[in-house]
Amino acid sequence: MPAIQVTDLTKKYEDLKAVDDVSFHVEEHEIFGILGPNGAGKTTTLEMIETLREPDSGEILVEGMDVRKDAKKIKELIGVQLQTTVFFDNLTVHETIDLFGSFYSTRLNSDELLERVGLQEKRDSMLNELSGGQHKRVSIALALVNDPRIVFLDEPTTGLDPQVRRNIWEIVEALRAAEKTVIITSHYIEEAEHLCDRVAIMDLGKIITIGSPAELIDRYSPESNISFSLSREVSHDVLAKIPGVTRVRDSNGGYVLTTGTPQETLVGIFTVAYENDAVADDVSMRRATLEDVFLKITGKRIRE
Amino acid sequence: MKQFLKFVGASLKMTYREKIALFWMFLFPLVLMLLLGTIFGHSSQANITLGVVDLDNSQVTRAIAGNLGKIDAFKISKGTESKLKQQLVDGKLNAILVLNQGFQASILAHKPGNATLYVDKSSPTVSQITSTALNQVMGEIGVNLAKQVVPNAIGASDIIKVTEKSVTSSDMRYIDFIVPGILAMTLMTSGLMGLSLSMVQNREKGILRRVKVSPLPLSRFLGSEITASLVMSLIQAAILLLAGWAVFRIHINGNPLYIAIIVILGAATFLAMGFLVASVTKTLKTAEMASNAITFPMMFLSGVFFPLAILPAFLAVIAKCLPLYYLGDALRKVMIQGKSLSNVWLDILVLVGTGLICFIAAIKFFRWE
Q1: Do A111 and A180 reside in the same domain of the chain?
Q2: Residue B248: closest CA among B180, B168, B328
Q3: Per CB distance under 8 Å, which residues of B are interface residues toward A?
Q4: What is the distance in angstroms between the Cα of A131 and the nearest Cα belonging to chain B?
Q5: Which CATH class is domain B44-167?
Q6: CA-based Rg of chain A, rounded to a whole angstrom?
Q7: Does A294 map to a domain?
Q8: Structural domain span for residue A253
Q9: Distance between CA A145 and CA A157 in Å, rounded?
């Protein structure tokens, strides 16, 4: 039985279909990502599974239980980090966790939780004294307070600087080690690639495709781009004959070759350089990312 | 239960840490009471209106009545005992001195004559001043009488023996009037402002949503918030009354249990109103404006600072349409006049009714986000 099974889920806000006939499932113990631009319907989808919003139509099963009928039981076994929650200003971190913990029948010790999210030294700080990243970590700790089987993280790193983002990734990876099922939304490509076992790419209320990051790249954008410069000009025709090359472009005084077999092509580039008495320099290779996948399918970038 | 107590405890802790809220909840009403009490509080004691009933109608008693009239501090009115007593209850008199029958006869028999002093229970200072003054008068009269009627009589105690009896009047000192009024006002503002603002804030911040995804039922969440506010209200009431007693010696004649019941009832009514404001407003700003729009007119039109009797008639009608009037009235009657709950049934009815209506409407319009 999958941890979460979503079938034909639809939610409308007036005329706008925020979530449009979406179906997917989340396996137990996997980290499942929903990737898409702002307004794609990621949060609405998540909040319907979390029992926060009522779907217009479709079915959601969490561990086999229907969100419409068993909301209370589901609430006990899920942990939720909401995108925008700001907590009580006048409570300390420890008091906040303790208070929210009291809402559940199962609860973890707050000091243990603080250690997990790396906030031990902020135990007795007031919430309004915390930085954005620390605040996010408190809300993640709160998502774990009932030792949930399924954890929902809604854009846990949005607005944080890269270093802090990496800290949060470590917390999420520890959840994988603890055999939690995690469902996470993001509009950061690297985040989805780095963390997720499988990713659903969402745009305009629809899920466009689902798969592991590697699968998706292989399926939609299997090629790599190799850019380099040559000390002497070589014609496009010559470069196009290098094994594996599917496309040749000029770029900043150098060249960009698109290839399905990057290793062969790299060897070919150096051979061509040698044969033409030229020196190859600034060689760099970029494998396609989910961004390229998104660009390929939707014709636009995830972050405008 | 444990969870409930934890929540209540956390709410109280948060209020305690909110220094500005503490100022408005505790310091402001105290300052207001001190100001109004010092400015207006003592005015009623400049002149004592004394009713004199001469049942003996003898040479001695007429002399006493005549001499009392010559003292500046007293304004004497005469009349029948029952008529004067009614005036005392109505607050038109401060005290009544009844010179009993057989007064002169007992003096002639070398015993002091019997007199009864009826005083307003709610103003013991009046009875003090009256008896001091009486002693002085009797001393003077004694000298004269000694010459004329009773050669042996010298001191006041030889002439008159006063038995004091209390009557509870419907009138009271301004300070006794204002303290229940300020208490009512405080219960209203902290009930309305406290809950509505924290509720709206919790909603704006998304805390309500975070609570909603937990298994905690809404009723438990609201119940805890309301309980915490009620606890604060009781503390507020205790502090105000204690300060009023310490500084102005206000007369708390009521049963403490009845007082607590009215305080809690009043607080609950305005909490329900605050809850309604929170449910129908969208942002913190509008909630603040709505609370102010409700509290300010009530503060000035409900007769908490000044008795309805001195307001123009149409304002008195308006006051009687406002729930704060009934809270002030109930507090005054139960606290100062020592009445029982059955005497304020109308007040209780209005408060319970208003509270219930607001609460039901608030639940109906409640929004998590």
Answers
A1: yes
A2: B180
A3: 2-3, 6-7, 10, 13-14, 17-18, 202, 205-207, 209-216, 368
A4: 16
A5: alpha beta
A6: 24
A7: no
A8: 223-287
A9: 19
Q: Please indicate, yes or no, whether residues A18 and A139 belong to a single structural domain of this protein.
A: yes
H-run or E-run covering B341: none
Taking the C-alpha atoms of residue A185 and residue A155, their distance in angstroms, rounded to an integer, is: 5
Find the CB nearest A102 among B3, B18, B213: B3
Q: What is the pLDDT of residues B129-188, one digit of tens each?
A: 777 777 777 777 666 666 566 555 555 566 677 777 766 554 567 778 888 888 999 999
- Same-domain pairing of A198 and A260: no
Q: How many angstroms away from the CA of B302 is the closest CA of chain A?
A: 35
How far A38 CA lies from chain B's nearest CA (Å)? 19
Is any Cβ of chain B less than 8 angstroms from the Cβ of A136?
A: no
Q: What is the ipTM of this complex?
A: 0.81
With CA atoms as reference, the chain A residue closest to B206 would be: A85
**A51 found inside a domain:** yes
- For residue A274, give the CATH number of its domain: 3.30.70.100
Q: What is the pTM of this model?
A: 0.74
Number of domains in chain A: 2
CA dist., res. B136 & res. B157, Å (int): 11
Residue A207 lies in a domain: yes
Let me know whether A255 and A138 are in one domain. no
Structure tokens belonging to residue B183: 């208490």
Which site among B3, B20, B203, B213 would you substitute to test the A interface, given the most A Cβ atoms closer than 10 Å to its Cβ?
Answer: B213
Measured CA distances, B288 to A263, B144, B284 (Å): 67, 72, 6
**Shortest distance, CA B17 to any CA of chain A (angstroms):** 6
pLDDT in tens, A20-45: 999 999 999 999 999 988 889 999 99
Same domain, A75 and A130: yes
Partner B contacted by A203 (CB < 8 A): no
- Chain B within 8 Å of A104 (Cβ-Cβ)? yes
